[in-house]
Every structure is written in C-alpha cells, then in structure tokens.
Design goal:
By secondary structure, this protein is α+β, with helices and mostly antiparallel strands. Helix content is about 35%, strand content about 35%. It contains five helices and seven strands, in the order E-H-H-H-E-E-E-H-E-H-E-E. The chain has a seven-stranded mixed beta sheet with strand order 1-2-3-4-5-7-6, with helices on both faces. Helix 4 links the parallel strand 4 and strand 5. The radius of gyration is 16 Å and the shape is globular. The N and C termini lie far apart (about 35 Å). About 30% of the residues are buried.
Length: about 180
C-alpha cells in the first residue's frame, strides 16, 4: 500500500474515484457529514470543492492505494486566522469497506500526523461519531478524548448521534 499527497490537479484527476469512496463510506453508515443516499453529483461536487481548497493552501489530501485501487483518504484543514496557524483539523478519514481491517486507516492517520508535523503544525483536533470504529482508532493512536457533544450530527440514516472531540499534540506549540 502506498500513500500519496495530492496536489489540486491530482485531486481533480481522482475526483471520480474519490466520489466512489465517499459514496461507499456513506452507504457503509459512516457519519462524515452526508445523508444517504448520497448522489454521485453531490459526491463529485464535494471533491471539486476540496481541490479548490488544496489549490488555495487551505486543505491537504492524502490517498492510500493498493496497486491502482484507491482504498482510502484523509485530509487536514487549516485555519485562516493568524492566531491559529499552529493547528489543523483532521477531516474525512475514509476507508473503503473492502479495505477495512487491513491497517489502511492507521496508515492514513500516521501519514496525516507526519505531514502536519513536517508543515509545522503542533496541534491537531477532530470530531468523530461516539462509539464508532474511528473513535477506537484515535484512542489507540494516542489521541486525547476531550468529551462528547450529544445529538451533534446525523448518521447517514438521519438519526442524531453524539460526537467525540479529540486532540493530539505533535510538538511544542509556538506562534507562527
């Protein structure tokens, strides 16, 4: 398995594959901001918007592939305020259902953490559905659980569920 950071052009070229991954993730029940059924046009639009954010330097996207097959993705979103340039939000860690249980999620998480540290990011944060397999992944990878917010987001089926907030320090915090 290889992980690759995509520039905006590469992300645009991979939009169809990433849309398929997003649809599979939502169909699999993951609460990642979308309701089921997720239409292809909406999935494609999501990735096109991310490509624009990558081009503007507000977003970084990595993908994991086994041969030519895209198995997963993860991204970082960067704040635009001067007092928060030391941190980033880890978003949209997705693994295709066919790739789960093979270490893809952990590899992507480690890749994003390493990439963030290399970019001078010293603090990461995220939210994930409470009780989800992702929550277990973050705990086992050394992330600190802050707490849960009830009825924070709807699952793909529309049921409201709590979300758990996590953070992870990557180094010594300094203003940049």
């Amino acid at each position: 398995m290889t992980t690759t950071r995509l520039d905006a052009a590469e992300l645009r070229a991979a939009t169809a594959e990433l849309a398929d991954l997003l649809i599979d993730t939502v169909d699999g029940g993951a609460s990642i901001g979308f309701l089921a059924p997720l239409g292809r046009a909406d999935a494609v639009a999501h990735w096109r918007e991310r490509a624009d954010a990558v081009a503007a330097g507000r977003h970084t996207v990595w993908v994991a592939r086994l041969g030519d097959r895209l198995l997963g993705t993860v991204a970082l979103t960067f704040p635009d305020k001067p007092n928060s340039r030391h941190r980033a939000e880890l978003v949209k860690l997705m693994v295709h259902r066919d790739g789960r249980g093979q270490g893809v999620g952990r590899t992507l998480l480690t890749t994003a953490e390493t990439g963030a540290a290399a970019a001078g990011i010293t603090l990461l944060h995220l939210d994930t559905e409470t009780g989800s397999p992702a929550e277990s992944l973050y705990l086992s990878a050394g992330w600190t659980r802050i707490g849960a917010i009830p009825d924070y987001a709807a699952t793909p089926s529309g049921a409201l569920h709590p979300t758990t907030i996590f953070y992870k320090r990557l180094g010594t915090a300094t203003a940049r």
